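Structure ticket #2291
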Amino acid sequence: MKNNLESVAFCCVSTGEFRFPNELAGQIAVNTVLKFLETNKNIKVIFNVFKYEDKIIYEKLLNDNNIF
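Resolution: structure written out below.
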């Protein structure tokens, strides 16, 4: 992997002030990361959330994909 990263963190981009739907943002983020991890298994991904609502969304999405 380029730059030899060991971890990367994602926040809930645009779900606050820009009002992008939280559930859709979570789905896009989790699906994209899962696809990326298929070929990049040696990196730790952290989903950084601000609201409790987002924590619940990400936990459900990760549980549904047997990740959490």
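Closing remark: The longest strand covers residues 7-11.
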